Amino acid sequence: MFRRRFLSFPLVIGAVIIGVVSGKAIFAQPLDEYWKKKLQEEPAAKENDLSTS
């Protein structure tokens, strides 16, 4: 029949490292912009909530 082969531990660790590094390279700048915008909107939203109550 078929024989199962499991991935070796170093191969898995290498794939995880490559994934994290490439993910940071691709998504770091858009995420920074998103959080900067989100943090700027947060005080304005709290101010609006206080003024409406």
Automatic annotation (TrEMBL):
Pfam families: PIGBOS1. InterPro entries: PIGBOS1. This is Uncharacterized protein. The lineage of its organism: Eukaryota, Viridiplantae, Streptophyta, Embryophyta, Tracheophyta.
